[in-house]
Design a protein that fits this description.
Shape: globular
Number of helices: 20
Distance between the termini: 53 Å
Strand content: under 5%
Number of strands: 3
Strand order of the largest sheet: 1-3-2
Oligomer: single chain
Order of helices and strands: HHHHHHHHHEEEHHHHHHHHHHH
Bound molecules: zinc ion
Helix content: 55-70%
Length: about 500
């Protein structure tokens, strides 16, 4: 076999960086699941140390030299390796090691302070840690933006190539049709959701959720499912994927749909290309592409009639007192009802929650909003966008962990990923000549194989826009999502919308 010393040098440098990152991820997962609260300070110090080591590795001359020697590579894979490596190096080298360490420390401390503030349902104890974190993020964004828009530098961490001016028209188009849709639904009688409510012991909900995750293809020999206060998925390695969940005893939807969502993320992680494991190309294409996978399984599969034709008998087996019919349950899975909590929001109003966060983040980093004014600004925007006002900070500004860990510029990817999920599902349906029959008989392999081929095994070979275009033949657009939501609302509520000229 031909040897490639330059490639080998690059891969061995990168494997060290990825090993540090895996250690960070295990510690982050542990912080959100099993770590005792008193361990928070030590954990923040440990994570700061690891961030410093990662920064040193990413900015080491030997890595840049190894990347430079890849420039003569003609293979697309190695050109893409160099492209991705340069992006990571640029983000690391743009800030001093001291700032990388402080950011990691402040993010870990922010999470601990957030947990406590949320427990007390008061923003007061969180204000100072958040202020510090925002200050550090502003420093980072200004350094990386180099005179450009600081918010773009934040977006770039999660969504390579995304910019504020690029996102605004997409979100404006979404808002323009979503607001009338939600208003039209509000004028109709509410959907009877009693078919999703009852008494569902959490242990049984977990068992059902894990079983469904396994049936759609999640490999539990290479993954776990644990409780956390905020559900998430972390890919420590493609053979070590951590999912978390939470549930409500009186409603089976949050746990089941949440596990389907995280399992969708998990399938992506487990399907990443083995041959590129530990290199930049072995990573997901972007946060929005990641979210497209979770939303596809949660909404396009998991709220669809075919899926429920298959699942309902199993649900009854697990919860014998639950005897709702599909005709009653289906509307309950598609109820549209403005609410205060994003992760429990329905598939339509969900994006209004994202628009609130998008607006507040941009204002924070444009210097138009102070951290101390955030709770009030939050409540005002909820009143205006969703017609509801939080009673306290726990159901308001403290509900999400993203800002507490310094993840600004992340929220938009939820909506971008949801748009992509509708486009990808439609493309899979076209390519496979329909999906209803396999889904109704619990055969998920055809869909998963398509996703493996078109998305998962490509890793970060293609940039997100290119990946989507190759898989679907289209650019990212809010129109398919809006058409889907309007069709569902038409069926459930009998509302007729003009659709508009998307
Ligand atoms: Zn997600």
């Amino acid at each position: 076999m031909e040897r490639h010393p330059a490639r080998e040098r690059f891969v061995s440098c990168w494997r060290e960086i990825r090993a540090v990152q895996s250690a960070e991820q295990v510690l982050e997962w542990d912080q959100e699941t099993y770590m005792p609260a008193a361990g928070a300070e030590a954990r923040a110090r440990t994570l700061a140390t690891l961030a410093g080591i990662k920064h040193a590795r990413l900015t080491a001359p030997e890595l840049s030299e190894a990347v430079a020697t890849l420039a003569s590579e003609s293979q697309a894979e190695w050109q893409a390796q160099a492209r991705e490596a340069r992006r990571h190096i640029r983000r690391a080298a743009g800030i001093p090691r001291r700032l990388a360490e402080e950011l990691a420390q402040a993010a870990s401390a922010g999470l601990a302070a957030w947990e406590e503030a949320r427990r007390q349902r008061s923003f007061a104890g969180f204000a100072a840690p958040l202020e510090r974190l925002v200050g550090l993020k502003k420093e980072q964004a200004a350094a990386l933006a180099d005179g450009g828009n600081p918010y773009d530098a934040l977006l770039d961490e999660f969504e390579p190539g995304a910019t504020e001016v690029g996102l605004l028209p997409l979100f404006d188009r979404l808002r323009a049709r979503l607001v009338p849709l939600v208003q039209a639904v509000a004028e109709r009688p509410p959907v009877d959701e009693s078919s999703a409510r009852g008494d569902f012991p959490l242990a049984d909900q977990r068992a059902l959720g894990a079983w469904v995750a396994e049936r759609i293809g999640f490999d539990f020999t290479a993954g776990r499912l644990d409780r956390s206060s905020h559900p998430f998925c972390l890919g420590v390695d493609r053979r070590d994927v951590r999912l978390t969940w939470r549930g409500q005893e009186n409603d089976f939807r949050p746990a089941l749909m949440g596990i389907l969502h995280e399992a969708g993320h998990g399938l992506y992680e487990q399907g990443l290309p083995e041959a590129w494991s530990g290199t930049p190309l072995g990573e997901p294409a972007s946060t929005a592409i990641h979210e497209s996978q979770s939303r596809l399984w949660e909404n396009m599969v998991g709220r669809g009639r075919p899926f429920w034709r298959w699942l309902l008998p199993h649900l009854r087996e697990r919860f014998p007192q639950h005897d709702a019919a599909l005709e009653d349950l289906w509307p309950a899975l598609h109820a549209i009802r403005p609410s205060l909590i994003r992760v429990e929001a329905d598939e339509a109003t969900y994006h209004l929650h994202i628009l609130v966060r998008f607006e507040l983040e941009r204002a924070l980093f444009a210097g138009q909003l102070a951290v101390g004014d955030l709770p009030h600004a939050w409540d005002e925007l909820y009143e205006r966008n969703l017609g509801l006002r939080p009673r306290d900070a726990a159901e308001g500004v403290l509900q999400d962990l993203h800002w507490a860990m310094g993840a600004f510029g992340y929220f938009p990817t939820y909506t971008l990923g949801t748009m992509a999920s509708v486009q990808l599902f439609a493309a899979a349906r076209r390519a496979l000549g329909g999906l209803d029959e396999p889904l109704a008989s619990g055969e998920f392999a055809p869909l998963l194989d398509w996703l493996r081929r078109e998305v998962h095994t490509r890793g970060a070979l293609l940039e997100p826009a290119e990946l989507l275009r190759e898989a679907t033949g289209e650019a990212l657009s809010p129109a398919p999502l809006l058409e889907y939501l309007e069709a569902v609302a038409g069926e459930v509520y009998g509302v007729r919308l003009q659709g508009g000229n998307e």
